[in-house]
Design a protein that fits this description.
Elements lengths: L7 E7 L10 E4 L2 E6 L10 E5 L14 E3 L19 E5 L3 E5 L5 E5 L5 E5 L21 E2 L7 E8 L5 E5 L5 H8 L17 E6 L5 E6 L26 E7 L5 H15 L7 E7 L8 H9 L7 E3 L8 H12 L2 H19 L27 E2 L14
Length: 393
Amino acid sequence: MDSNFIDYVKIYCRSGRGGRGSTHMHRAKYLPKGGPDGGNGGRGGHVILRGNRNYWTLLHLRYDRHIQAEHGGNGSKNKSTGKQGANAYIEVPCGTAVYDAETGEYICDVTEHEQEVILLKGGRGGLGNFNFATPTNKAPRYAQPGEPMQERAVILELKLLADVGLVGFPNAGKSTLVNAISSAKPKIDNYPFTTLEPSLGIVSYRDERSFVIADIPGIIEGASEGRGLGLRFLRHIERNSLLLFMVPADTEDIRHEYDVLLNELAQFNPDLLDKGRVLAITKCDLLGQDEELKEMLKEGLPDDIPVVFISSVAQQGLQELKDILWREMNSESNKIAAINTQESLIHAAKTFAYMDELPDDDEGWGDEDIPDDDIEFIDEDEIEDLEDFEYEE
């Protein structure tokens, strides 16, 4: 397989911890009782996923698997807030799904260019001692520590975004079809498993319309048990709204081969069977102009999906195929299925806090966020750096 196509990678992510609040006491000859003026700590950096349409694989993350955001700076005198930690951005191709590496739990999806998702939030900065001054405690010598960092190992999976996904056995003519109806030029040869990596092609249609077609390596009977290339690449058709099954005309039992393909999809993900389906009988130039033979073949084919006879080499039935694909993609039932799939993804994503938007002001903790009983203080005797306690002359 071409090592340049990477669609699966595991990375370790760590956000920045929040800076601690300062316990500085202000002193000046013109202000002998200046009181506390320790500033808040800065927020730690977030780890953020960002969609980028200029990336087609996850190759750039293969050798950079440790993503770490910057820690927040500590507060200082004169109520100065510590520096906010820089965010760490992970650029990913559109169509990337994220899962927890330990539990396999779905986290989020990045499907649009410049879409941003906060994967790990940075720790909030601790409050400085000036926040705790009261009429009865005018010189508090304690402050809050910053919130700790978050860390997590995640799995990134690229799933190609296309309207139509091709499903078929090796050497069924999938790459030849993509080459014939789009500008994509996948490798074509007369032996099984010519296609070793997924590819996309843009198909021009009537009235300057177009749609995207995805070609994946062929699957064979027993692929769910690891035979051939297995089911590794089937993730790339999970997002397709329509599946185009392709079976050669010279196959001994077309219906059996179609049923085998359906079974392998069910083994991988039963939800794939809910998608719209079209069956294309390929290599029909081998049948010549024998219409009676075509009618005989139709008798044993499934009658609940559209069937079309094509020949990519002889350019036969390609326009009819595109018409059928366009009609099925825009059918009411297919639109409802696509909406339901999208809503389920959005619902799953919203169950995680990582989808929350970044607040406008997240540099320090608010008093209402943490009950007084839960405040962890830093005492002056525990501070190693005593600069915070030096008085100005």
